[in-house]
């Protein structure tokens, strides 16, 4: 759960970016990041827009709402 919040928080603060930059800013390996990203896409917290040649990751409004609720409960990441 902390890892998902960390990814949402970084995406919210930094803005849309490609997968490689996102993994670097979250300080995790690419192989660890991809399953987390796929889970967040499934729950519609994140979206991936395909641009040639990279894919841009951005947080959705639902992801922002979830992040705000978690931060308001005293869980800051």
Question: What does this protein structure show overall?
Answer:
The protein has 77 residues and is of the alpha+beta class. It has a single domain (2-72), classed as Winged helix-like DNA-binding domain superfamily/Winged helix DNA-binding domain (Arc Repressor Mutant, subunit A, Orthogonal Bundle), CATH 1.10.10.10. Helices cover 60% and strands 16% of the residues. It has four helices and three strands. A three-stranded antiparallel sheet has the order 1-3-2. The longest helix has 13 residues, at 2-14. The termini are close together. The mean pLDDT is 88.
Question: Quick gist of this model?
Answer:
The protein is α+β, with helices and mostly antiparallel strands.
Give the integer mean of the pLDDT values: 88
Spans of at least 5 consecutive residues whose pLDDT stays below 50 are none
Quote the distance from N terminus to C terminus: 11 Å
- Please provide the ordered H/E string of secondary-structure elements: HEHHEEH
Number of domains as seen in the coordinates? 1
Specify the biggest β-sheet: 3 strands, antiparallel
Going by CATH, what is the homologous superfamily?
Winged helix-like DNA-binding domain superfamily/Winged helix DNA-binding domain
DSSP E strands, number: 3
Number of helices: 4
Q: What coarse outline follows from CA principal-axis ratios?
A: globular
Architecture, according to CATH? Orthogonal Bundle
Which structural category do the helix and sheet elements fall into?
A: alpha+beta
The proportion of residues forming helix, as a percent range, comes to 55-70%
């Amino acid at each position: 759960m902390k890892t998902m919040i960390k990814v949402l928080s970084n995406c919210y603060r930094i803005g849309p970016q490609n997968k490689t930059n996102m993994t670097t800013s979250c300080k995790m390996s690419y192989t660890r990041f991809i399953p987390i990203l796929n889970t967040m896409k499934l729950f519609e917290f994140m979206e991936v827009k395909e641009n040639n040649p990279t894919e841009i990751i951005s947080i959705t409004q639902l992801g922002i709402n979830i992040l705000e609720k978690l931060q308001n409960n005293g869980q800051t990441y």
